[in-house]
From TrEMBL:
Residues 1-16 form the signal peptide. Coiled coil: none annotated. Transmembrane segments: none annotated. It comes from the Eukaryota. Pfam families: JHBP (PF06585). Keywords: Signal. It comes from Photinus pyralis. SMART domains: JHBP. This is Uncharacterized protein. GO terms for cellular component: extracellular space.
Length: 237
């Protein structure tokens, strides 16, 4: 999601009056296109923080989704959950570390880091987390430390194949704290999960990867219907 927002900004499809005159522009035949994108993207944190109406982007301070189903199955973590009012905090506080843009192939890949972020949501859950039984409904709050996401978008050439764009995201959470309310054994659950917080962060990383991938797929499809890939990344004027 963040990637597509930034493409729309960096490659000049938002009214220029909304951007600083000093804001860098990037073009596909620039031999340093990737470096240009990273520099430009990492200068936009405050710009995207409160949303970009020109491309239909809601505020990232916080970002609120209606909710969805989450399922995860590993040898020690196996649960199904339903969430509502899924709210993400500090998603604007990202840093791109690398990017590889290939306009002729309709492909973008790279790595982005979220130093610290959080979430709050209503939930209903049944299963186990790192062998701890979880069952009930209520609210849950998470504070997440450094999270590294590697992403790839491919097969984006024109507006006729928007649903065929491939989106892949793999995120790894370094550490996190969690607080459930609404469970009969919530004190035990919270204590045990936080005592094994790094293991728990590793276990739930695939679930967050799936969540972010879903967000990005929706927003990519929306932007694709407006712009061809070659329009998002134009040649030099």
């Amino acid at each position: 999601m963040i990637l597509i927002i930034l493409l729309s900004c960096i490659f000049d499809h938002i009214e220029t009056a909304t951007l600083s005159n000093a804001f860098p522009k990037c073009y596909q035949n620039d031999p340093k296109l990737n470096e240009c994108f990273v520099k430009a993207a990492n200068s936009l944190n405050d710009f995207v923080k409160n949303g970009v109406p020109e491309i239909g982007m809601r505020t990232l301070n916080p970002y609120v989704s209606s909710g969805f189903n989450i399922t995860l199955e590993t040898p020690i973590t196996d649960f199904a959950a339903y969430t509502t009012n899924f709210t993400l905090f500090k998603m604007y506080d990202y840093q791109f570390e690398e990017v590889d843009i290939r306009p002729k192939e309709g492909k973008i890949s790279g790595k982005v880091v979220l130093p610290k972020w959080g979430l709050w949501t209503n939930y209903e859950i049944l299963g186990q987390m790192i062998s701890v039984e979880v069952k009930g409904s209520g609210t849950v709050t998470c504070e997440c430390d450094r999270t590294v996401c590697e992403f790839s978008l491919s097969n984006w050439f024109d507006t006729s194949n928007c649903k065929d764009i491939n989106v892949d995201i793999v995120c790894k959470l370094d550490d996190m704290s969690i607080n459930f309310t609404g469970m009969a054994n919530e004190e035990v659950v919270n204590t045990l999960l936080n005592l094994s917080s790094r293991l728990f962060a590793s276990e739930v990383s695939p679930a967050f990867s799936s969540i972010f991938q879903g967000f990005m797929k929706q927003f990519t499809t929306r932007i694709c219907r407006k712009f061809k890939f070659s329009e998002l990344i134009p040649p030099s004027p």
